[in-house]
Every structure is written in C-alpha cells, then in structure tokens.
Amino acid sequence: MILALETSCDETSAALVDGGRVRSNVVSSQADLHARYGGVVPEVASRRHLELVSPVVREALAEAGATLDDVDLVAVTTGPGLIGALLVGLAHAKGIAFGRGLPLAPVDHLHGHVASLYLGPEPLEPPFLCLLASGGHTLLLDVREHSGFTRLGTTIDDAAGEAFDKGARLLGLGYPGGAALDRLTREGDPQGFGFPVARVPGLDFSFSGVKTALLYAVRDLSADELEARRADLAASYQAAIVRALVERTLAAAESVGAERIAVVGGVAANSELRAALAGATFAPLPLCTDNAAMIASAARFVERIPYPEYLPLDAHA
Ligand code: KG4
Ligand code: ZN
Questions:
Q1: Which structural domain range is residue 248 located in?
Q2: How many structural domains compose the chain?
Q3: Distance from residue 186's CA to the centre of ligand 2 (Å)
Q4: What's the 95 CA to ligand 2 centre distance in angstroms?
C-alpha cells in the first residue's frame, strides 16, 4: 500500500494505491483562491498547502478505510514545481515516513503524469508515444519502460494549458479558463478567425504567436462585436492549439515508429483534442489534472530510499 502526496502547484492531493488499484485519491484545488490574481501566487499556494496537507492525508486514509499501519511506502513529488509548494509536501511525507520507519519514494511530477496511464483497471503498457500537455508543460515523450522516458520535443515558450488559460483570460472567462474555453467553443465557428499555428523546427511547440494573434483580434473588436464573436474567437483559438498538438504528436509517433499514442495532463481533458486523436489512449479524466494517485503509480517504478536516509532529500523547482 502506497501513500502518495502531490503539492507541486495549486492542488493539495493525497492518495492510497494498492497493487495498481486506486483506493482513494483526494484532491483539494486552490484554484478559487488564486482566481482573483489571474494565476497561481507561489507564496499563497505554499501557505494553503500547509493548512490542507494534514486534513487531505487524513481524508485519503479514511476514504480508503485504512490507517497508517497499512502503509508500506510513502511517495512524494520532489519536482519540478513551485519550490515552496513542493517543500510542504516533501516535509510532510518525510515526517510520516520517518515517524513510521517507512521507506520513501521521490517522484518526478512528469513521470507521475505518464504513470497515470499505468493504473487499473486497464493499465497501458509501454512502448508508446506520450503527449504530456498541462498548465506547466508540453512534452512529447518516447516511453519504452515504466521507469522513465526520452524527451523528443517541448515548448519553447508557453505550455499548451497556459495558452488555453491566457486565451480564456483575454475572453473574460476567468482563471484557470481552459475548461471554460473548451465549453464556449461548442457555440463557435472554428474557421471564424484565421489564427496561425506556429511551426518551429523539430518536434518543439510554440504558443506565444497564437496568443498574440488572439490579443490583437480582441483589441480590434468593439465591445459589442467582441460579445457577438466571443465563441468564434474561442473556437478558432482552440482549433489552432489543437492542430499544433495533433500535428507534432503524429510526427513524433512517426519519427520513433510508435504504434500507440497516449495523452496525459490537464489538457488531455480537452474535447477537441480527444476527438482529433480518437485512436489514442487518454488518461481517465480524474487523473488528467494534478493528483496524488498518479504519483503513487510512478512510485512503483522508482528506487525507494530506505529509512531514514531520505531526511536530507531536497525538492527542485
Ligand atoms: O496537469 P494540470 O492540472 O496542471 C499542471 O501540472 O500544470 O493541468 C491544468 C491545465 C490548466 O491550464 C487548464 O486550463 C487545462 O489544464 N485544462 C484544459 C481543459 N481542462 C483543463 N485545457 C483545455 N481544455 C480543457 N477541457
Ligand atoms: Zn501536472
């Protein structure tokens, strides 16, 4: 039985995973707290994690019908993420592991997102090509084993989720607006505006151009026109982002001869992306955005540090 903690950004999460089966996965999102600032404020996030981490662990244990006596391994995200936020989870995980004489597994957050595919009831097995698209990352990964992956491409500026969030903000949809923008596109014309899809060399992505194009389009409309065409703007903007993601993902799959494609991270929840890559495996919706079950899943494939050697372990931003 693995008890995992995830506090790398603005979700405080604890999960219990037993033999690849999720027994509980409690996620407390701070999104509302950060909404009025239009983005995550690191110090506010750290303080909120500090308040939430104990109750969230207690709730995860209760939901699983377990106690700390049942836990064999403590797992925790050690990076990448907001350093203060990570340190809260790491200190808490060390405290539990040390207090119980348990080993500790340090987990890379990106490995966690990929490992969201390795949980029951129908785990995906490597090899596959993985698109990891979240608020912080846009990566193409060649996955050949459970324990790791090779990076084939990344974004040279904004992450895909960040592009969704910034676009949503320009359209007055609040923060984080990716899901709201996705909903608004249903009423819009994806060909209403011709937004560019950036073409950078290799298998990398760039989303700053399309964001600027949206900014200019919004600026050139009167308040009434903007209101009338908001859905068209959203649909055209989303279409450009999804086209870029799909094109590069298919190119990456071809370059490594991958027969299967998987999509993970918050943007994997996007309806147009799911339709465009219909043959791909998508992480289950509750495991797309940040959560501790995916960290527990990855922990099964990393080297655990025996008690009490993890005490000097550090997080990385
Ligand atoms: O994986 P995640 O929780 O955070 C990071 O690890 O960064 O992903 C959150 C991101 C946000 O940018 C959010 O707007 C985006 O995923 N997102 C979506 C959708 N649902 C969440 N983006 C587009 N369409 C959606 N339906
Ligand atoms: Zn994430």
A1: 128-283
A2: 2
A3: 26
A4: 24
